[in-house]
Amino acid sequence: MTNAPATPSPEAILLVGGKGTRLRPMTVHTPKPMVPAAGVPFLTHQLARARAAGVEHIVLATSYLAEVFEPYFGDGSSLGLHLEYVTEEEPLGTGGAIRNVASRLRSGPDDPVLIFNGDILTGLDIRALVDNHRTTGADVSLHLTRVPDPRAYGLVPTDELGRVTAFLEKPQTPEEIVTDQINAGAYVFNRSVIDSIPADRPVSVERETFPGLLAEGAHLQGMVDSTYWLDLGTPQAFVRGSADLVLGRAPSPAVPGRCGDRLVLDSASVALDAKLTGGTVIGRQARVGAGARIDGSTVLEGAIVEEGAQVRDSLVGAGARIGARTVLQGAVVGDGALVGPDNELRDGVRVWCGADIPAGAVRFSSDQ
C-alpha cells in the first residue's frame, strides 16, 4: 500500500505596491511594508507567518519605491523562502497587480494561490483558509472578519454555508448594513481565476473581479476568522500594531526578542531611570535620555529622545530628535526632524521629515 502524495504547499502573492499616502510622513522615504514594526520591516512578519503556514514561494508585487525590497530580502533564503519580485510600471490596482505577476507562478490551473494585502496585521489561520478553500471547492475564498462599525469597509454577506452572496461597498445608512462581515484582505484564488483577470490595465478585485465572478455564478467562499486583525493604514494604527506585536497580542515568529512591555534593539542606549512601557520599541543606535517616559510608541533607528521627554502612542522617525521635556501624544515625527525642548504635540499632529521646530514653539494651554 502506498501513501497518498502530500498536498503541495500553495504559493503566494504579496501586494506591496501602495504609496502609503495615509501613513505619511512615515512613507516618504520608505514603502509602507518596509516601515519597521516591532523592530523589523512589517513585511518580515507577513513573510514569516506565511512560511510558518507552509508557503515556500512568494512573489512580491511592487511599485512605489520598488528598489528597496530586493536589497533587503534578497532571494528569501534567510527566511526559508524563495522570493521573486515584479514591479508595476503603472499603477494597476489590486486585480491588475495580481494578474501582472501571474507569469512567475508555478501553479496549475486548479491549484490554490494565496494573496495577501501588504498592510494587514492579522492572526489569520492561513492553513485553515487554504483547507476551507479546497474542501468547499471554491473558485475564490476570502478571509472575512467582523468589525463593530463596518461603514468604512466593503461588506461581504454570506449564506448559511459561508458562500458569498454579495459585495456591498461602504454602506452609510442603517438599512445598508446587512452584516458586520468585511473583506479582511487575504484570499485564495484558483490559478485559473488569476489568468482570467484582464492584463495590462488597472483592475480592482473588490469592485470588478469579485462582483463579476459572482454575476457569472462562480463559487466565492467566505471564511470568518475573528482572531487579531488590524488595518495598518494610519500612523496611529501602525504604532498600535507594532506595540501589539511586542506585547504578544498579535502573533508573529519574526519579533526579534521576547514579548513584553518593551523591545530595545542592539546598540540602542536607554538611561537607567527611563521608563518604557506598552510595547514600546527602541531602534538600533537610538538614545533615550534620563527620566524619559515612552509608552506604546516606536522610536526608530538613530533617533534621540532627550531627558524628561514624554512620548505616548507616537512614532519617532529615523534620526529624529525629541527635545528635553517635550510631550508627544498620538504624534508622528518624520525621519530627521528636530523637535526642540518644551514642545507639546498632540492628537494626530504630523511633523514632516527634516522639519525643525524651535524650543517651546508648540504648546497647549493647561485648560485644554
UniProtKB/TrEMBL annotation:
InterPro entries: GMPPB_C, Mannose-1P_guanyltransferase, NTP_transferase_dom, Nucleotide-diphossugar_trans. Residues 261-339 form the Mannose-1-phosphate guanyltransferase C-terminal domain. It comes from the Bacteria. SUPFAM superfamilies: Nucleotide-diphospho-sugar transferases (SSF53448). Gene3D superfamilies: Hexapeptide repeat proteins (2.160.10.10), Spore Coat Polysaccharide Biosynthesis Protein SpsA, Chain A (3.90.550.10). PANTHER family: SUGAR-1-PHOSPHATE GUANYL TRANSFERASE. This is NDP-sugar synthase.
